[in-house]
Amino acid sequence: METVIIQDTDQSILDILTIALQMENYQVYSVQDFESNFMDMIKKLKPHVIMLDYKLDGKICVQICHQIKAVYPHLPVIALSCNSNINDEYDGHGFDDYIPKPFDLDNLYAVLRKHIPKQEAKDIAQKAGDKL
Q: What is the extent of the structural domain holding 87?
């Protein structure tokens, strides 16, 4: 089962995303804030994807993305945003993709499927390398 960590400041968005992803057999962990143990949570849960709320200018979200990528460079980090410029900004800030708000479930699932197979292949290669 694929694991997804979602961070969003809006509890109703977290609830909707959690239900939508659980219906597609994802294991979902949701948080509203970037808690001090966010990186520990990633280490413990070993998610396939992380989705971060890109609010306003996105400075905090970008900092968290950089922290994640410094430790887990191959872990896909996806920005969730109602910012109309996110299409132009996400890649330059280190995000692997973005999902615009309000979100379309078909697009949500497509973006996740685009990144999870890539991550699964890396997991398999890593496990094979560990056995050598």
A: 3-131
